[in-house]
Design a protein that fits this description.
Blueprint: E1 9-17, E2 21-32, H1 50-55, H2 62-72, H3 81-93, H4 112-120, E3 133-134, H5 135-160, H6 169-180, E4 184-191, E5 196-203, H7 206-218, E6 223-226, E7 233-236, H8 246-281
Antiparallel strand pairs: 1-2, 2-3, 4-5, 6-7
Helix pairs in contact: 3-4, 5-6
Length: 282
């Protein structure tokens, strides 16, 4: 489970495929995505955070995409065109927009959308952000996440070797994060049980939640690794860890043993053939 003070709500539902598009079908169930976040201090090779699970999906696999979205929800409205409408609906629900006009006289002096953004800052979005997404767009987002993780792995390798500065890999990482985290809102919430302020996150898309987790990971300890056998991403305690799981480690060990026996057998055969050839020459 995630850190106790982290909470970001998203929604999941059944998924139907229509014209190569993932269409969420209500009712929607809210859940905390940080229930599927395992910081490096608590992660093991067998426990992967949500963004790692997403990156490790098979590429261009429609069934994997459907299964993931049914478990965790559609990735959201990438254009975020629904964020303003969601905020407006929320404000109407709690009666803000039904107040006497005099209470919001300044509203006429500003564009309505700007007003909504200002008044809705810190107000949690709702399931209207869970919009249909084409499989092509899903594959693109998946490819971008894998690319991002490869950048981070490359950066860690260079940093560990104390590479010469000037490479732009860190700028690509920072730029991608800045873009994706624009759909994340930080807000304070009073925790009555702990009797203190805690941080909550409003995410405009599930993709933004992936990058929020990745941002938190970059601030932590540990190493992003790629399994030498299955090529899946995983969090390693040490930079020399090669395998994502016990099963991959065991399978690789068995493969090395088979290769060694095969090489030995080939060597014996070659030696015998050489001896036979030598005898014939004599």
């Amino acid at each position: 489970m995630g850190r106790l003070l982290d909470k970001a709500v998203w929604w999941r539902s059944q998924i139907k495929v229509q014209d190569n598009t993932l269409v969420p079908v209500g009712p929607f169930e809210a859940y905390n995505i940080f229930d599927f976040y395992f910081p490096r201090i608590t992660a093991s090779r067998e426990t992967s955070s949500l963004h790692i699970q997403f990156a490790n999906l098979p590429e261009n696999d429609s069934q994997a995409a459907i299964g993931f979205c049914e478990r965790f929800g559609v990735l959201g409205n990438m254009a975020l065109s629904g964020w303003g409408e969601a905020a407006e609906a929320t404000l109407e629900t709690i009666g803000v927009l039904q107040q006497p006009k005099g209470a919001y006289a300044k509203m006429a002096d500003r564009p309505f959308r700007e007003y909504i953004r200002g008044e809705a800052a810190g107000i949690q979005a709702n399931p209207t952000l869970c919009v249909p997404l084409s499989l092509e767009e899903f594959y693109r987002i998946h490819s971008e996440m894998r690319e991002m993780l490869k950048w981070i792995r490359t950066f860690q390798d260079k940093r560990n070797r104390q590479a010469v500065s000037g490479d732009d890999i860190e700028w690509r990482i920072a730029g991608r994060l800045a873009q994706k985290l624009s759909l994340v809102r930080f807000r304070l919430e009073w925790d009555h049980l702990r009797k203190g302020w805690v941080t909550r996150f409003d995410i405009g898309s599930l993709e933004a939640g992936f990058y929020l987790m990745l941002y938190l990971e970059l601030l932590g300890q540990g190493f992003l690794a790629i399994c030498s056998r299955c090529q899946n991403f995983f969090i390693a305690e040490r930079d020399w860890t090669k395998f994502c799981s016990e099963s991959c480690q065991t399978a690789a060990k068995s493969q090395r043993s088979r290769n060694k026996k095969k090489a030995a057998k080939h060597s014996v055969g070659a030696t015998r053939a050489s001896r036979t050839h030598s005898k014939r020459k004599k």
